[in-house]
Amino acid sequence: MELRPYSAAELFTWLTNKEDFLLLDVRNPVEFGRFKVEGPYPIQMVNVPYMEFIEFEEESVAKVPRADQVRIVCAKEGSAKYVGEILVKNGFADVAYLEAGIKSWGNHLDPVRVNAVNGYELYQFRRPGKASCSYVLVSGTEMMIFDPAKNIEAYQRFAHERGCAVIKTFETHRQADYISGSPMLARATGAEIMAPEPDFTGAAFRYTPVKDGEVYTFSSDGPEVKAIHTPGHTPGSTSYLIDGKYFVSGDTVFILSIGRPDLGGMAEEWSKMLYNTMTEIIVPLDDSVTILPGHYMEWAEANDQLVFAETIGKIKAGNPDIYGIRDEKKFFTFIKENMRPQPEEYAKIREINAGLVEVDEEQQDTLDLGKNECAASMHPPPNR
User: Which of 44, 62, 88, 152 has the highest CB neighbour count under 10 A?
Assistant: First the structure.
């Protein structure tokens, strides 16, 4: 059988359908250790660097299990093709390489519907390469997007398939871990960027400041979107309550944690804001409100439909070490105990997301690669 390519979309389908295959990552051990392909179920994976195939072909081939299907991943595609040809030459029957390399996995978006039939459609766009989520709300022929990633073609295809116009993009805050697609969508579609002013003051692009308590609507009918200022992760962090039921929380509330307040270098000051947000806004929410987070820590957080969504009642019950804190100083102690260095690229991504720095597409992909580091606690609570 000839060597062939496969797409990031195909890879995600195989992972979610529990397909039986071997994933061979031929990047160097440092890159492999920093960021690797992950899915909701265990997969067979092995790391044998490309350079080893060049220097020690026979020994490297021997390290690859004789699986019925071998899927190869590398940084940019070329190394995977080279290794794939070696494996085919050595009798491996079904071998394929990832088109465009690991960056295509990092940019892949996969939509799944969140709500039942309510006269509108709400979708979660999962980004498995970043462990992040954006959201799309459709009513009639109009579409709103919350925290879009830079792969704007995915949202545009989605809108085209449904005969929709993208009318607004909402930012929950100025992202540090990935490059926002809002400015690109505004240029491509004319969509209005809605963003919290404390985070976007001085931005080099036009946006409409969102106001705490203000309600945003579609042209006719459709659900209401209420902006709720939830500072702490950043001073401007804003969540959006859709139809009184779905709380798009950005990096404020996660299923297994809460947003870290130390990324801006003012941990104590922002921790106070986050504590007030938690006790005065998040905890009082009706237990039935569904949290739609901007990120996840692990696939175990997803429900049976592989949607990252949970009621605030269950989140509070499952995270007593966070929501059980009733003292501001103890909360800051919790934050300090979980503080860790932020990735070096975050500072530059913040500037890009304000339009203050421009980089080419290759630099964007490099900066954007890898899982997020936005949760206050690095690991799930011990009782999970």
Answer: 152
Flag whether 374 is in a domain. no
Q: Among residues 74, 133, 164, 374, which one is catalytic?
A: 74
Report the CATH number at residue 69: 3.40.250.10
User: In terms of DSSP bridges, do strands 121-127 and 110-113 run parallel, antiparallel, or are they unpaired?
Assistant: antiparallel
- What's the pLDDT band for 379 if we cut at 50, 70, 90? low
71 neighbors 23 (Cβ within 8 angstroms): yes
Residue 242 covered by a domain: yes
* In a shared domain, residues 227 and 210: yes
**CATH number of residue 278's parent domain:** 3.60.15.10
- 166 and 246 together in one domain: yes
Domain-embedded: residue 373:
no
Q: In terms of domains, do 98 and 142 share one? A: no
**pLDDT band of 378, cuts 50, 70, 90:** low
pLDDT of residue 233: 95
| Together in a domain, 181 and 219 | yes
Q: In what order do the strands lie in the sheet with 225-229?
A: 215-216, 225-229, 238-242, 246-250, 290-293, 310-311
Kindly report the length of the chain.
384
Q: What DSSP state is assigned to residue 149? A: B
In a domain, 381, yes or no: no
Tell me if 191 sits within 8 A of 167, measured CB to CB. Answer: yes
Mean pLDDT across 259-285: 94
99, 114: one domain: no
The mean pLDDT of the chain is: 95
Q: Give the closest residue to 247 by CA, choosing from 163, 92, 122.
A: 122
Catalytic-residue membership of 74: yes
- Tally the C-alpha atoms within 13 A of residue 117's C-alpha that lie toward its C-beta: 0
Q: Which residue would you say has higher pLDDT here, 165 or 117?
A: 165
Helix (H) or strand (E) holding 86: helix 78-89
Tens of pLDDT along 27-48?
A: 999 999 988 999 999 999 999 9
